[in-house]
């Protein structure tokens, strides 16, 4: 089983909690649109978002990690994300996962992930090398042909034992304690040095959503857009990734 772990920021750390909730709702719908039912989603949050969407494969874990000034201090934001990832990844063992995948709460993922992972229960894991970049509301989407994993946190699928858990998890530590879970672009090389290499996923695995106003790391001002990588956002891509316009009335058919 593949377990998705989604850390969600607090209302206090959000520029707009309503907008964050809409972004999350699209993301969790995308996660739950898997073609295989052999998956679960663990969402770690300070406060459960007010959304209408429900699914039997979602578990919410509410935590009381401090969030004061989190909106303004980048190290606190990093630490908050790392704590929540570690909490969710450890909790994921309740579902006997073969693999886990950290998912940023505003990104979308391919509906084919769970079915693909189910075929390879003993594989070390995969990193997403190919994916898409999308600016909210655009009629176009941009292909990222390589190194997707370096720019987007929704990128690593790891066999559960390769999550490098501390012997006793602590949630009151600083940024450095959680670096393995936050520095997504370095996981591939770290595991290779440990003799546990992961492979590139053989298909585009995720969509990195830009210009949300809520990013922890990069935004479109830091990422170039080449016209040679641009294509119309067609129904096939929308359906595979559950990518709809946030402020319209989407028709997304979710496999329950």
Can you give a write-up of this model?
This protein has 256 residues and is an alpha/beta fold. The chain has a single domain (2-241), classed as Spore Coat Polysaccharide Biosynthesis Protein SpsA, Chain A (Alpha-Beta Complex). The chain has helices spanning 17-31, 74-91, 113-118, 148-151, 179-182, 187-193, 235-241, and strands at residues 2-7, 39-45, 58-62, 99-102, 108-109, 125-127, 131-135, 140-144, 156-159, 199-200, 206-210, 230-232. Strand 7 (131-135) and strand 8 (140-144) form a beta hairpin. 42% of the residues are buried.
Strand residue content: 15-25%
Structural class: alpha/beta
**What is the molecular shape?**
globular
Uncertain regions spanning at least 5 consecutive residues: 218-222, 249-256
**What name does CATH use for the topology?**
Spore Coat Polysaccharide Biosynthesis Protein SpsA, Chain A
**Rg, nearest Å:** 17 Å
* Number of distinct helices: 7
Tell me the series of helices and strands, N- to C-terminal: EHEEHEEHEEEHEHHEEEH
User: Could you tell me the number of beta strands?
Assistant: 12
Number of domains: 1
CATH class: Alpha Beta
What is the helical fraction, as a range of percent? Answer: 10-25%
Widest beta sheet: strand line-up:
3-2-1-4-9-6-10
| N- and C-termini, Cα separation | 16 Å
* Biggest sheet layout: 7 strands, mixed
InterPro entries: Nucleotide-diphossugar_trans
Organism: Amazonocrinis nigriterrae CENA67
Protein name: Glycosyltransferase family 2 protein
